[in-house]
Amino acid sequence: MSVTIQDIAKEANVSISTVSRVINNSKAVSPELKKKVLDVIQKRNFKPNTLARGLITNKTNIIGIIVPDISNQIFGALTKGINEVCHQNEYTLMVCESGGKLEKEIELLKILGERKIDGVLFAGVDINFTLVEEMKSKDYPIVLVTQEASDREEIMHTVVHDNVQATRDAVSFLIENGHKRIAFIGGPENDFSSGIKRLTGYRLALEENQLEVPDSYIEHGDFTFNSGFDCMKKIYEENSVLPTAVMACNDVMAFGAIRFLKSANVDVPNEISIMGFDDSELAKFITPELSTVRISYFDEGAQAAATLFELMSEHQSSIPTKQYIQHKIIRRNSVAKI
Amino acid sequence: MSVTIQDIAKEANVSISTVSRVINNSKAVSPELKKKVLDVIQKRNFKPNTLARGLITNKTNIIGIIVPDISNQIFGALTKGINEVCHQNEYTLMVCESGGKLEKEIELLKILGERKIDGVLFAGVDINFTLVEEMKSKDYPIVLVTQEASDREEIMHTVVHDNVQATRDAVSFLIENGHKRIAFIGGPENDFSSGIKRLTGYRLALEENQLEVPDSYIEHGDFTFNSGFDCMKKIYEENSVLPTAVMACNDVMAFGAIRFLKSANVDVPNEISIMGFDDSELAKFITPELSTVRISYFDEGAQAAATLFELMSEHQSSIPTKQYIQHKIIRRNSVAKI
DNA sequence: TTGTAGGCGTTATCAG
DNA sequence: CTGATAACGCCTACAA
């Protein structure tokens, strides 16, 4: 086995409490003893056992995150932001994937609880009543990130970007560029934050400008390239009057849409402008470069983690329940002026 | 505090040992007692404390992974594969980011050790002598993944794709398509697996076919879009006779190269063909679609994790030190026949 | 300032 | 088959 606090105590001719004090810098220890202990620790390469420590302090310095899919770039960036502030606080991160499935999410919440993590960051897809109840029953704090609860959202701490406003801004940007016939390729209808809210933003922008569009201008994809392609195809085939611009709810669907338009010999942006969402790494790589809404998932993750740390440090006095991360419209050449 | 094994024992009128046995299915317990205990456990919603358990069993059911950058799609996919087999084995995953920096890697190895993880999966950039020594001094098993050690590789368990062979195959593919003047955009020269080895594969393929190229056909980037752009630019500007094909060592640099060629009005693939590496999600999104080498990082992660589990289960008898994950040449239209 | 001893929640080793 | 009881490695009153 590895060397313990006892071995150190013996070798330094002190009590284990003294060693403990040195390790934790808790109470004053005379300089001489301190040095002696430190030397032995160094020499024997002693590392305190975090399990034993956690057992007694009831604190593990671990937080968990639950994401639908870690290979998704968005959650990668989110995780990176979270990890950044974890490292600053000497925490380590336990990563769990839920696939966005409710039962899996509940199971993971349980597993993390058994592991006595100090808190959880949760990125879901559909955070409904059941899930909120489940979370509230836990004895550790939870912060929602990227996705807000669709029910009783006011009781959960949440860090998100404002999906309504961001989409509204993006569509307004299209309108400012002279577009009046704007189609919409959205996310799944059961996706509260990225699906429903973005649709709301789109509708708001149109209303504000007294614009109307036929229902056939609105399609729902699932954030994949193929669904973007298919939605664009439908819009193209089912409308005798084509839109002059399309708001796609993520970059990847925008790419799919562009691909379809190319195959149909429709010029982007001169015949149809395309707006994306996310500002993924890819947005600059394709031709034409994609105008989009920049969301910093890194910042979002970092802010959420910071909030969780606040929550864990007890003086939860005045932490706002809901925090928004700024978004930004990025102009590139997939959008043309009319 | 949460409910403990003692509470259960008391309420079920049995000893804590009996409860423990029920929980772990260790020794035979009479059906009646078992049922009684199970009922109480259910009723009180008891969850064993993994810390206490780990303290005594010296096993945490946690493994750690160390990657340079979790927001990088490659490591995302890798992590997903790893997580998959972890979940099957009822393990959870601790994710650490090193930024590819040696000191950070060493620090993380130490931190994970303190946390008593059962094993580590390591993806580095430059796994040199120092690092190998460091790893060998740990009391937990380590498996290298995606990147092999540049020194004493034979003593580390490793799961990688064959970078030499993969690049060789890719270049051979270009040659089979009639190309003789093939340029190379590689990775950093201190990157053993993805830098040096791929260059070796390229050279091998050329030699086998008695082809020679000027030094000015070979450039080193850093796997970013911009470096791909710059390398292509250099090759374009510094050679009076242009290559007919370019082997780029990852897809993203291939995109950069294509972007430069577009800006220089060079037709891809008719004037210059481009070959990528990785088969990232993006490869199908751009125009022309990118021919590339498919590496399944998911499989690589999963295989590495499986290997680690073997190692942890002690009968380490016959686990091969080095395992290769298959690659595959993907033909798309960024490569033309000559 | 230092040391002693009890306990955190389990598992494991004995007897019975 | 069941139940005490001693670890596991550490922290923390309390006492000295």
What does it look like?
The structure is a homodimer of 338-residue chains. With 338 residues, the first copy, chain A, is α/β, with parallel strands linked by helices. Chain A folds into three domains: 5-57, lambda repressor-like DNA-binding domains (434 Repressor (Amino-terminal Domain)), CATH 1.10.260.40; 62-161 and 297-326, Rossmann fold (3-Layer(aba) Sandwich), CATH 3.40.50; 163-295, 3-Layer(aba) Sandwich (Rossmann fold), CATH 3.40.50.2300. The first copy, chain A, has twelve helices and twelve strands. Chain A has helices spanning 5-12, 16-24, 31-44, 50-57, 73-88, 102-114, 129-136, 163-176, 192-208, 225-237, 251-263, 297-312; strands spanning 62-67, 92-97, 119-122, 142-145, 157-161, 182-186, 218-220, 245-248, 273-275, 292-295, 322-325, 327-330. Chain A has a six-stranded parallel sheet, sandwiched between helices. A four-stranded parallel sheet of chain A has the order 7-6-8-9, with helices on both faces. In chain A, strand 6 (182-186), helix 9 (192-208) and strand 7 form a beta-alpha-beta unit. In chain A, helix 1 packs across helix 3 (31-44). The longest helix of chain A is centred in the middle third of the chain and has 17 residues, at 192-208. Chain A is elongated and about 90 Å long. The mean pLDDT of chain A is 93. At the A-B interface, helix 4, helix 5, strand 2, helix 6 and helix 11 of A face helix 4, helix 5, strand 2, helix 6 and helix 11 of B. Strand 2 of chain A pairs antiparallel with strand 2 of chain B. The structure holds a DNA duplex (16 and 16 nucleotides).
